[in-house]
Amino acid sequence: MTKGRHHLLDLMRGLAAVLVCAGHLRAATMVDLGTAESPGLVDTFLYALTSLGHQSVMVFFVLSGYLVGGSVLTAGSRFSWRSYAQARLSRLWTVLLPCLALTWAVDQTIVKLAPQVLSGAYATLWHSAPQPDHYDASLGTLLGNLVFLQTIKVPVFGSNGPLWSLANEFWYYVLFPLMFIAFAGQKTGITARQRWTAAALTLALGVLLPADLLCGYAIWLMGVVAFVTPRVHRPSSGRSTRPGRWLQPAIASLAFLAAIGFSKWATPKNWNAPWGDFVLGMGVAYFVYHCGPLSSSRSWPRWMRHAIERLSDMSFSLYLSHFPLVMLIGTSAYLDERMQPSLLSWTVMLGWLGVLILAGHVVWWLCERHTPTVRKMMALSMSAQRGIRHPPSS
Predict the structure, then answer these.
(1) What is the dihedral of CA 146, 147, 153, 158, to 10 degrees?
(2) How many CA atoms lie within 13 A of 172 on its CB side?
(3) Confidence of residue 130 (pLDDT cuts 50, 70, 90)
(4) Is the distance from CB of 216 to CB of 251 less than 8 angstroms?
(5) Cβ count near 138 (within 10 Å)
(6) The predicted structure's pLDDT at residue 394
(7) For helices 81-113 and 343-366, what crossing angle results, to 10°?
(8) Distance (Å, whole) CA 177 – CA 179
C-alpha cells in the first residue's frame, strides 16, 4: 500500500484540503478579524492560517501537474487516451456524483431554514456563500457540471462554490496530453498527422477557454517542470549523506513560505495578471523539486505515514463535500451572530472542522476508495462496446 508513496507530497495535499475547509468554516462561524474585539497574537495567527484557502488551491494545481502530468510523460510512447480517460474520469466522477447529490440535499434543507442564504444575502458577510442572483441548481447546470463546464458555460451547481476548480483540473487533464502529442518527437511513434491534429486542438482550446483558467494552467505546468527537472538534474539533497544535504530543502522551504507571503500580499492588488499565484506556483514547484527525494522517507513512524496517507487519500472527498455542509452549519447556528475569537470559539470551530473531516472520510469510505473498481467497470464496458462494433469474424 505504501510502495511508491511520497509522504511529504501526501501531507501537502491533505493539509491543503484541510486549510480550504477551515477557511470556509471560519468565515461562516466567526467574525472577521477587522471586527474582532481585542484579538491577540494567537488569534491573528489563526486568522492568517485560515485565510490560505486560495493559496491551498494553487498548491493543488502544482501537485496535480507533478503527479498527473508526470504520469503522462512517464507513459511516453505507451500513452493511451482510453486508459488515461478511464483513470481521470473514474477519479473525478466517483466523488463528484455523490457530492452533487449531497449539495442538492443540503440546499433543500437550507431553503427551508433560511432561503436568503442561497439568494446571496450572506455572500459579503461570509465571503463564500452564493453570490446574489447566481444560485442555480437547474438540470442544465447539473449536466454542465457533470461535463466540467462550470464557470465556462454554466455556473457551479447549487451552493458548492469550490466546484470551480474541478473544471480547471479537467481541462488541464485534456490540454497537457494534447501538448505532449503535439511536441512529441519521432521516436515516440506519433505520426505527423497526429501531432498537427493535437496542435490544432490545443490552439482551439487556448482560444475557447477563459483566460483565468489558462493562467491556472501555467501554474499547473510548474508541477510538470518540477517532475521533469530531476530527470535532467537531480537535486543534491537526494544523493548526499552529509549534513549539508538539508541546506537546499531548508532554502526551498523558506522560498515556499516567502511565496505564500507574497501571494497573500499580491492578491488584493489590481494587476492585469495573477502575479501572486505565479510566484506561489514557482515556490511550490521549487519546494517539491528539492524536497521530493526526502518525501518517501521510511524513517517516519508507521502510524504517521498511515495517517498522512489516509488524509491525502480522502482530500478530494473532503474538498468536494465540505462547502454545502459549511453553509448548513452557518445557517443553523451562526446566521446573524458569528463568534468572537476566544479559546472557546476556536475550540468550537475545531470541533466543527472535525465533523467536516469525518464527513469527508465517510464520502471517501463509501465512494472514493472504490475508484479502482469503477475504473475496471468502465474498462470492461468500453471493451464490450468495442466488441459489439467489431464482432469477431465467423
Answers:
(1) 10
(2) 29
(3) confident
(4) no
(5) 12
(6) 44
(7) 130
(8) 5
Cell 470551530 belongs to residue: 349
Q: Position of cell 452557518?
A: 330
Give every CB contact of residue 6 below 8 A, 6+ residues apart in sequence.
292, 295, 296
Whether 368 shows a pLDDT value over 90: the answer reads yes
Q: What percent of the chain has pLDDT over 90?
A: 72
End-to-end CA distance of the chain: 45
The residues spanned by each domain of the chain are 7-385
Span 318-336, pLDDT tens digits: 999 999 999 999 999 998 8
Grid cell of 133 as nine digits: 442572483
